[in-house]
Design a protein that fits this description.
The protein is α+β, with helices and mostly antiparallel strands and 567 residues long. The protein has 3 domains: 164 residues, ATPase, nucleotide binding domain (Nucleotidyltransferase, domain 5, 2-Layer Sandwich), CATH 3.30.420.40; 152 residues, 2-Layer Sandwich (Nucleotidyltransferase, domain 5), CATH 3.30.420.40; 202 residues, Alpha-Beta Complex (DHBP synthase), CATH 3.90.870. 37% of the residues lie in helices and 21% in strands.
């Protein structure tokens, strides 16, 4: 049975394909279109999925969309009626898109793809829940989803057992953790649906001195973690602006994009992060009491908050956690397909997500042809061990290495196949990367990749973190050894690497460890500010040639800017 899941129209459009319940391919449209957080119809992602599966579109048994547009339209219509006349401007701007194509998904799909088969729809938060639980190794688990908003739901909780998920409680729009976080993101001068991770990073520099304001004035919090927002502080429910005059009156003028970051901004970020963590811990504790389960599955955009995820293990009775790597709307494509296969069609589970490498791979012949056509000097290694030795020596010498290997990652994290790598021992490396390679804000931290079997020696983390979605304390005796990946608060967002999941990246970490005594590398995504992560060797070359990276390793091809480097 062949099922294609798709998500589009809002942000992070994507496609994922299942063959008899096993995920063959999944990718976000932004990687192909080069438009970050693309909301467009995922035509190129769909083409990739079909190609990877070796089929034509009308070989599909089902195509399933990741939410129910009519319910979403109902919410938008009712919200604007309630806020009339204030919300009329936003309503007027939204209607042309709805009336042209958002209400007519089947017609759009058939016109764009020539597809004549069945088209179905999934509930947004059930798609999130399915994307995590049905991909997890757990037979049963508590399930928590949280994001900005789906149709009406902003947060849902329940449990998964066998081939079924049951969400028993929900929080409804406009009361939303995701929209609260996005409102502060906008106030701090960052882009909504893209800058929330920057706010999480900025939080490490501040003190939560505004936490009480959130708890007592902006939120009405219940014992089980459910809450209501004081909508006097917000405008997102009726205008295009996220926050309102009362928010500005309480915290001062908003930061201009690219303006200086003040102590106020750092403390506001820290306060928001603290409150969101406490709310999620309360919710998780309540969920654990209700379900009496020891395992937890998390999805939705809020599931990308790695600081919060760590608290869900450290401060609750849950013993294991699974966070779907494409936790946002891109993962909704995967979840919709899994939900249909298991929950609606009743098929048993026999697939577990072992890694996030579900995207396209660069063919060696294509890489060779590109390098020859563009007359880019390179060396081709036919011995993988020699390539790893060369790369490890260059990294140990302080060189910055672009690393393009195997299939592209699904989700927003580079996990060793579309990465920029550097020596975590170099004290100035964070500033060099931010300034000369990534071209981004100087406060932005970098994450470590570490051998799974050595993780406990460097990080205080009891569970593995293969998708770089858990923050952990760097052990005090290692912080001076790893300055480039240790945040200002002594933590790091860890990626643990198993040999069976990524042999070449594991091999590189091992070689680097043998050379330096530290089997840890700084690992950041292969892109620059405002650009999607590289999809293929063409994107990687552009990033390499237009930044201060020293080396690019694409498959078995070794490209250097400086003659003699690594020799």
């Amino acid at each position: 049975m062949l099922i294609l899941g798709v998500s589009f129209m809002y942000h992070d459009s994507a496609a994922a394909i299942l063959c008899d319940g096993k995920v063959v391919a999944a990718a976000a449209e932004e990687r192909f279109s080069r438009q970050k957080h693309s909301l467009e119809f995922p035509e190129q992602s769909i083409a990739y999925c079909l190609r990877e599966c070796g089929i034509e579109v009308n070989d599909l048994d089902f195509l399933v969309f990741y939410e129910k547009p009519l319910l979403k339209f109902e919410r938008i219509l009712m919200t604007h009626i309630d806020s009339f006349p204030e919300g009329f401007g936003q309503f007027r701007e939204a209607m042309p898109l709805w009336l042209r194509w958002k209400l007519f998904i089947p017609e759009l799909v058939r016109r764009r793809l020539g597809y004549t088969g069945r088209i179905l729809f999934a509930d947004h938060h059930y798609a999130h829940a399915a994307s995590s639980f049905f991909a997890s190794p757990f037979d049963e688990a508590a399930v928590l989803t949280a994001d900005g908003v789906g149709e009406w739901t902003t947060l849902a909780r329940g449990a998964g057992r066998g081939n079924r998920v049951n969400l028993t409680k929900e929080l409804r729009y406009p009361h939303s953790l995701g929209l609260l976080y996005s409102a502060v993101t906008a106030f701090l001068g960052f882009r909504v649906n893209g800058g929330e991770g920057k706010v999480m990073g900025l939080a490490s520099y501040g003190e939560p001195r505004f936490a009480r304001v959130f708890q007592e004035e902006i939120l009405d919090i219940r014992d089980d973690g459910s809450f209501r927002l004081n909508m006097d502080y917000f405008l997102f429910h009726k205008e295009l602006v996220m926050y309102g005059p009362k928010f500005v009156s309480r915290f001062g003028p908003p930061r201009a994009p690219d303006g200086p970051i003040t102590r106020r901004d750092e403390d506001l970020a820290a306060s928001l992060q603290s409150v969101v963590e406490e709310l999620c811990v309360r919710i998780a504790r309540s969920l654990q009491r209700e379900t009496r389960l020891k395992r937890l599955c998390v999805a939705g955009g809020v599931g990308l908050n790695s600081k919060m995820n760590r608290r869900l293990i450290a401060d609750t009775d849950f013993k294991e956690i699974f966070i779907q790597p494409a936790a946002g709307d891109d993962g909704g494509a995967l979840g919709a397909a899994l939900l249909l296969y298991h929950q609606r069609l009743g098929r048993p589970r026999d697939w577990v997500m072992q890694n996030a490498y579900l995207g396209p791979e660069c063919a060696p012949a294509d890489i060779r042809r590109t390098l020859q056509r563009r007359r880019i000097a390179h060396e081709e290694f036919h011995d993988p061990d020699r390539l790893l030795d060369r790369a490890a020596h260059d990294l140990a010498a302080g060189r910055i290495v672009g690393w393009v290997q195997g299939r592209m990652e699904y989700g927003p994290r580079a996990l060793g196949n579309r990465s920029i790598l550097a020596d975590p021992r170099a004290s100035g490396m964070k500033d060099i990367l931010n300034r000369k390679v990534k071209h981004r804000e100087p406060f932005r931290p970098f994450a470590p990749a570490v051998l799974y079997e050595k993780m406990g020696e460097y990080f205080d983390l009891e569970v593995e973190s293969p998708y770089m979605l858990l923050v952990a304390d760097v052990r005090p005796d290692q912080r001076d050894r790893l300055p480039a990946i240790t945040y200002v608060d002594g933590t790091a967002r860890v990626q643990s690497v198993r040999r069976e999941h990524n042999p070449r990246f594991h091999g590189l970490l091992s070689r680097f460890g043998e050379l330096t005594g530290v089997p840890v590398l700084l690992n950041t995504s292969l892109n620059t500010r405002g650009q999607p992560i590289a999809c293929d060797h063409h994107d990687a070359l552009e990033c390499f040639l237009n930044t201060d990276m020293d080396i690019l390793v694409a498959g078995d091809f070794y490209i250097t800017k400086h003659p003699g480097a690594g020799s």
